[in-house]
Amino acid sequence: MDTVDIIQSVERLGAELLPGGGCIRIKKGKYLPNSITARIAEHKQDILTILERDNQAKKAGFLIAIPGQLYTVTLSKISSIYIEHIQKSWEAWRETHYQGRQQVIKFIATGKTLDYVLVKVRNYLEYVTARTK
Length: 133
Prior knowledge:
Blueprint: H1 3-12, E1 16-20, E2 23-27, H2 34-42, H3 44-59, E3 63-66, E4 70-76, E5 79-86, E6 89-96, E7 104-111, H4 114-131
Antiparallel strand pairs: 1-2, 3-4, 4-5, 5-6, 6-7
């Protein structure tokens, strides 16, 4: 079971993992089997890294599609932005789906850190918003 599987198992069982000062708090942890809590302890640092990434993405307005790996935000009924961790870098792109036409993909940014890509996405959103006024 990898780190993402552990986080998803916790969520499926009705609990929540929260980062707090280098520790992991487990909200509603009494519902978790001992095998899962043991895995959380084994993978503590990796889980904390993922939880911090998820919090960064949430603060930027993104939804978590896959913890620590894929984030998304819907811009309109036909357009969404995605940020994905691919190998050792982060990529952001916009997908637009027009009825009866081919999907349009607009590359936004790539970078080694989520922080960098979030800044580029924020700049892109400001640019798009300014153009539509």
